[in-house]
Design brief:
7% strand, 183 residues, PTS_EIIC, protein-phosphocysteine-sugar phosphotransferase activity, sugar transport, mainly alpha
Length: 183
Amino acid sequence: MKRAVNALQNFGKSLYGPVLILPIVGLFIAFGNVLGNGNLAKYLPLLGHPFIQNIGQLIAKSAVSVLVNLALIFAVGIPVGLAARDKGYAELIGLVTFIVFINAMNITLQLQGQLAAPEQMKAAGQSMVLGGQMLKMGVFAGILTGALSGYSLISVTGMNLTYSACHPANAPICRCPLSTIRE
């Protein structure tokens, strides 16, 4: 029971990073909308300049792209939060797991003949994610793949990968790390 509680606590802590991004993105969207909104130009004439409005739209739309790809943020952020060390590898593993998940779901839908036409995707409960058509899972896909890759990384971290053939005579008993083998 204590082990399950610890695992849930670690998972909850791993959500901190991706969730922390949300208010920051919200501030960028609000700031971009203030700059890009032509209605405020009557109060502040500077905001009526096309360059300022274009910069505001650029900021707002760029920040919205983070929200559109929120599943990817969770798929990368959760393994980083779960990893005690090698956080760079955790990010990479989370990203690769998410991409493989998208492509596996796309291939599964394709093999079953259930890929919907672009105009029928919404009715079929499908969406395009990073160029792959999959079931519409939203952020849950990122949380699922992030947790899967994070806990997989935890289970193999610290594992001693050994090479038992250090010397032909000692092969059954010799267990030296690969990095120590010299030819």
